[in-house]
Each structure stands twice: as structure tokens, then as C-alpha cells.
Design brief:
The complex is a heterodimer. By secondary structure, chain A is mostly helical. Chain A has a domain at 55-270. Chain A has helices spanning 3-6, 13-23, 26-42, 58-82, 91-108, 112-134, 139-159, 189-210, 213-223, 225-230, 235-261, 271-284, 289-305, 312-327, and strands spanning 169-170, 263-264, 341-342, 349-350. In chain A, a hairpin with a 6-residue loop joins β3 (341-342) and β4 (349-350). The model of chain A is unreliable at 1-7 (pLDDT under 50). By secondary structure, chain B is an alpha/beta fold. Chain B has two domains: 1-81 and 172-258, 3-Layer(aba) Sandwich (Rossmann fold); 93-170, no CATH class. Chain B is 38% helix and 24% strand. Chain B contains ten helices and ten strands. Chain B has helices at 44-51, 74-80, 97-105, 113-118, 123-140, 156-168, 186-201, 213-219, 237-241, 244-251, and strands at residues 4-15, 18-29, 33-37, 59-64, 67-68, 82-84, 174-178, 205-209, 222-227, 230-235. In chain B, the strands form two sheets. In chain B, strands 6-7-8-3-9-10 form a six-stranded mixed sheet, with helices on both faces. In chain B, strands 2-1-4-5 form a four-stranded antiparallel sheet, covered by helices on one side. In chain B, a hairpin with a 2-residue loop joins β4 and β5. The radius of gyration of chain B is 19 Å and the shape is globular. The chains are: A mainly alpha, B alpha/beta.
Chain lengths: 352, 258
């Protein structure tokens, strides 16, 4: 027995918050949610020299990279963090969504609302097509296949006509106005709000999934795939679902991204993006959605915040990463569950 | 015979040139504790791996309730009524004890993924069914106070119990226990023996692999002995204990030259 467990419990912000949340009344919880969500929506209006970015437009930074990283990391977290499938080609889903909106808006004049659905559908279809053969493999072999998939999508986009080849596609339609909000190239705020809304929807669906049967099935697969299978979990089905749902998120945000940047080229969808999103997931705390979202936002934020250092910022960024991995090797907010202790005789929960 | 829940017919299992099982016939009947014993490497765990669908046998057939389950995926077989534990404890370490059991209990539910997102259909009743089933089983195994703890943090004995609880959550026809007493002290072995009897009395047939002979002889209704992949004896504990082949297999054959 280590002495740490015998001596008094170390102060832990996460546990403090957890205790508060569990004892909070319904009203307190609703108020907390409203405040947090309200703050997130208000963020682009709160641009100031202290926590805003001085060198670049704060609303743009909030949209890309912060918001974009966050929502993609949440999507990748379903694949990597929950079901334990190491996917090194997540950018492929993103690219599929982006090209879907670009091609459909230019060729057929479909607007973004329709194309988000199409982007997700095509990403899911790609997920099924790749997943059915690839998910029979495990570990390193699966990682290599997904890596290849990411590159294949980019190289296909580079070489066929419909995607415009290396020149890419320009003049991608911005989303139609909604609730009096105008989506303009020079104003990133509405795009950020759109992305945030999508993110809240994804988080909502995700939380409901992981609290129930699919969440347990994914965790069991991550812990021990063979045993999960022996215990009646349809492992292949759930791995495929995890892969496809994660892909759907990537496809959806891909469409939003292309509507904001208005022109896309294959070089936007390199392996670098996959690695960056994976770094966000690991940095934030694999398997913990709040950690992943926060970690991704921070990883998007710091390079922009430190932009006044010009290229030296990459050095600071590296130092931050190394420091982080030493101080919190399991990520910003690790997956570790809070344990509850029950009395042996009464079966009542014991407060520690 | 109709009371045979699980029947293994003429089972042969080869790994390349190695014959792990050769023409083995086994069965487990309703309401009994059947034991499968034999020296190390006799092929006992291989039997488990074949009947649960992890290996495809070279020859032979496996029947559950007189239906062949050969070629089915392990999760299908588990849902049909074969649940197992493992020689070295294999729990879902980062999940709580309750979640471990719920995961297996879920196998009996119908709810799909989309229904889970929106909380419609059988989602809510299924969720509470899994929860109450799991809580009930933890109480049955005497580890209800561990419900909220992570499986990896449980003491060894409780991990073993949790593994059995998880297997029972599948409501199996036959429960396969792979050396459940490994690492237990004599007192714990006695308790485990009582527990296995309790499981049988609750209506589960048990197939037990065990090395501890006193435990096997005390609780088994029938004992089958494997040696080098072949069944060499079968009968009541007493018959098996006095069987010359069994004694030879365990103690070695006397050197005739002397």
C-alpha cells in the first residue's frame, strides 16, 4: 500500500467540482450550464488584450483553430479515447465533408444546411467502407491502414477533376443568413456561433451515448476486446459505429470549415492535421470529453496568443507540451473515474 | 439425451502439428457441477476456448440445448447461454464493478445506438434492467459494497467474485469457470466451494476447471479427466480418484525396469 492513500487526500480540483456537481440541486445545475454556455457564446465579444489574441482577429481564432480543433477532437475522441481504435487518418473525414460542401454548393447550389447532412453521410459511408475491412485488424496494423486512408483521400483530391486538383475549389458558398446573422468572409463571429452550436449538439448526443449501453460497450472494447466479445458485446458492430460516428463529426465540421474559408486545396488536409487533432485528444485527456475539448481549445489558442514571438513561439509551444506531459501524463483532465465507496453492511454510500 | 445442456462431440483441435484435443466427448447436464481436471497442458482451457467460439475446432461438434453452436461468433454464443471466467482475471479494469456487470447484462437487451441517443424505445427500461440485474448479482456474490469502485482497484478475491458476477449477468445455461480458486487460501477456497454450490442451486449448470483436488472432489457431481488432449476417465469424484489411469496421469507411471 502506498502511503499516499493512507495520508490525507491531496487537494484535487476535479474531485471538488465532482462533489459539488453531485450534491447540486437541479436549479444549480441549470444555472451552471446556462452560465458556461452563455460565456462560450459571448467569447468573441469579450475580445481584450488580456486573454484575447492581439496579433490576430480573436473571433477568427475562436473559429479556427480553437473551435475547429475542439469539435474535431471530440469526434476523434469517440474513436481513439472511447473505443481505443488508433486512427491516424482522421483528416480524411474532414476532407470529405469539406469537399462535399464545396462541390455541392458550386455545382448544384445546395446550401450549407443540406450539405452538412451530406458531408456527414459521405463521411459515414467512407467510415463504413474503410471500417468493414480495416477494423478486423488491431493496434499498429489498424493505425497504419487509417494513416494510409488519410493520405489516399488527399491524393485522390489532388488528382481528380471534380475536386479541382492541386488548384482546389474556390468560391465555396457561405451559409445562408439565419436569425438575422450574416455569414461574411470578414466576420468570423457567426461561424464561431454556428460551430459552437454544432459542438453542443455533438456533446449532447455523446453524453447520452456514453452513459448508456454503447458507452459501456466501447469502454469494454478498449479495456479488453476479447473479453468484451465473450461477454456478449458485438465488438465489431460497436467498433464500426464508433468509427462511423467519429467520422460523421469530422464530415460535418469539414463542411462548415469550407463554407468559411471559401476556397479549399488538398494541401489543407495533410497528415499534420490528423496528428494535431490526435495531440489535442492526448493533451486533453483521452476518453474525457471535457478534457479533450479544453485541451484542443488551448492547443489552438497558445500558438495564436504567442504570435508576437513570431517563430520562437513554436519553441515555447514545445516547452509547454513537454512540461505538460511530465506534470500530467494522462492529460489535462484525465479519464480516471471518481470512485464511490459503499458501506459493506448498509450498502449506503460512504463520504470520504 | 434431453437434459444435456452442453455437449461436445468428437472434438479434435490441432494447432499446426500439435494436437491439443483429440476426439474428446464431454457434456454438462442440467443442474450439475461438472469438473474438468487434468495435468497442466492437458487441453482444459482449449475446451473452453472452443466451446465459446474463440477457436474453430479441426473436427467435431459443440451443441448447446441440442443445437450446434459451431461457427457462431463468441458474442452470439455468449447470448445463447455460455458464459465464462478466465484463468487469470480479465476484468474491464478502468470501469467500475457495477459497470463491468452491466456490460454483460446489456447483452440481453434490445436497445440500439440511435434509440440510446434519443432515450426512446426500450432505452430506459433496458438501462434500469441492466442496473438492477447488476446490483442484484453483486449482492449475490457478496461484493455489493464494491459497486462504485474501479475493477482494477479491487482486492484479488473480490476481482474473482466480480468475474463470476459478470458471467452470471449473461444468464447462462452453463457457467464455465476456469480455475476460480487459483491464488486463494484454504479458507477462501471453502467459501468459493459454497458459492459455486449456491450458483448451481440458483439454477445454473457449472463446468469447472480446477487444480485444487479437495475442492473439486467436494463439490463436483461428476468429474471428467483430460490428459494430453484425450479424455481418460469420467465418473463420480470417488470413481475418478480410484481410477488407475488418472493416478498415472497425475503421478507418472512407475518405472518397470526397477
Amino acid at each position: 500500500m502506498s502511503t499516499a492513500q493512507v495520508t490525507k487526500k491531496r487537494f484535487n480540483l476535479r474531485d471538488k467540482f465532482g462533489d459539488w456537481w453531485e450534491n447540486a440541486t437541479r436549479t444549480q445545475r441549470v444555472i451552471f450550464r446556462v452560465v458556461v454556455i452563455g460565456f462560450l457564446y459571448a467569447l468573441p465579444l469579450l475580445d481584450n488584450p488580456v486573454f484575447g489574441t492581439t496579433e490576430s482577429d480573436f473571433a477568427s481564432v475562436l473559429f479556427y483553430p480553437m473551435g475547429m480543433y475542439a469539435i474535431m477532437a471530440i469526434g476523434l475522441n469517440i474513436i481513439v479515447g472511447k473505443s481505443g481504435i488508433l486512427d491516424l487518418g482522421y483528416v480524411a473525414f474532414f476532407a470529405i465533408g469539406a469537399y462535399t460542401h464545396a462541390i455541392f454548393s458550386i455545382s448544384f447550389g445546395f446550401n450549407l444546411w443540406v450539405n452538412i447532412i451530406f458531408g456527414m453521410a459521405f463521411a459515414m459511408l467512407a467510415g463504413v467502407m474503410l471500417g468493414i475491412p480495416a477494423l478486423r485488424l488491431r493496434g499498429d496494423y489498424l493505425a497504419i491502414i487509417t494513416l494510409g486512408f488519410g493520405e489516399i483521400v488527399r491524393i485522390v483530391a489532388l488528382n481528380i477533376n471534380v475536386t479541382g486538383g492541386a488548384a482546389g475549389l474556390a468560391g465555396v458558398a457561405a451559409p445562408p443568413n439565419i436569425f438575422g446573422l450574416e455569414f461574411r468572409v470578414d466576420d468570423a463571429k457567426p461561424f464561431y456561433w454556428l460551430l459552437l452550436t454544432l459542438m453542443l449538439l455533438v456533446i449532447w448526443a455523446y453524453i447520452r451515448l456514453i452513459a448508456r449501453r454503447p458507452g459501456r460497450a466501447w469502454e469494454a472494447i478498449r479495456e479488453d476486446e476479447d473479453v468484451a466479445e465473450f461477454m456478449g458485446v458485438a465488438t465489431f458492430k460497436y467498433k464500426l459505429w464508433g468509427f462511423v460516428l467519429g467520422g460523421a463529426v469530422g464530415g460535418g465540421v469539414g463542411a462548415v470549415y469550407s463554407s468559411q474559408v471559401t476556397s479549399i486545396v488538398p494541401e489543407l488536409f495533410t497528415l499534420q492535421v490528423s496528428i494535431m487533432i490526435l495531440a489535442c485528444v492526448v493533451f486533453g485527456g483521452m476518453g474525457n470529453i471535457w478534457g479533450v475539448a479544453l485541451g484542443a481549445a488551448l492547443l489552438g489558442y497558445f500558438p495564436e496568443k504567442l504570435r508576437f514571438l513570431s517563430d520562437t513561439r513554436i519553441l515555447f509551444f514545445g516547452v509547454l507540451m513537454v512540461l505538460m506531459m511530465n506534470v500530467r501524463p494522462n492529460g489535462l483532465i484525465p479519464r480516471k473515474k471518481r470512485e464511490k465507496v459503499y458501506d459493506k453492511h448498509s450498502g449506503q454510500e460512504v463520504t470520504r | 439425451m434431453s437434459d444435456r445442456l452442453l455437449e461436445v462431440r468428437n472434438l479434435t483441435m490441432q494447432f499446426g502439428g500439435v494436437v491439443a484435443l483429440s476426439d474428446v466427448n464431454l457434456h454438462v447436464s442440467e443442474g450439475e457441477i461438472a469438473a474438468l481436471i487434468g495435468p497442466n497442458g492437458a487441453g482444459k482451457t482449449t475446451v473452453f476456448n472452443v466451446v465459446t467460439g474463440y477457436y474453430q475446432p479441426t473436427q467435431g461438434d459443440v451443441l448447446l440445448n441440442n443445437q450446434s453452436i459451431l461457427g457462431l461468433k463468441p458474442h452470439k454464443i455468449a447470448r445463447k447461454g455460455l458464459a465464462r471466467t478466465f484463468q487469470n482475471v480479465r476484468l474491464f479494469g478502468d470501469m467500475t464493478a457495477l459497470e463491468n456487470v452491466m456490460t454483460a447484462a446489456d447483452a440481453k437487451n434490445k436497445v440500439g445506438l440511435v434509440a440510446s441517443i434519443f432515450g426512446v424505445g426500450s432505452s430506459k427500461p433496458d438501462e434500469s434492467r441492466s442496473h438492477s440485474k447488476a446490483a442484484e448479482l453483486l449482492t449475490f456474490m457478496g461484493i455489493s459494497h464494491r459497486a462504485g469502485q474501479l475493477a482494477k482497484n479491487l482486492p484479488y478475491g473480490d476481482q474473482r467474485r466480480l468475474e463470476i458476477a459478470r458471467a452470471l449477468a449473461l444468464e447462462p445455461e452453463v457457467l464455465l469457470l476456469d480455475e476460480p480458486a487459483a491464488g486463494f487460501n484454504p479458507q477462501e477456497k471453502v467459501e468459493l466451494g459454497e458459492l459455486i454450490k449456491k450458483i448451481r442451486d440458483a439454477g445454473f449448470a457449472v463446468l469447472l476447471i480446477e487444480h485444487d483436488m479437495s475442492l473439486v472432489m467436494k463439490i463436483s457431481d461428476r468429474v471428467m479427466v483430460l490428459d494430453f488432449g484425450q479424455k481418460i476417465a469420467e465418473g463420480t469424484p470417488k470413481e475418478v480418484q480410484n481410477n488407475q489411469k488418472v493416478i498415472d496421469a497425475y503421478l507418472g507411471v512407475a518405472d518397470h525396469a526397477s
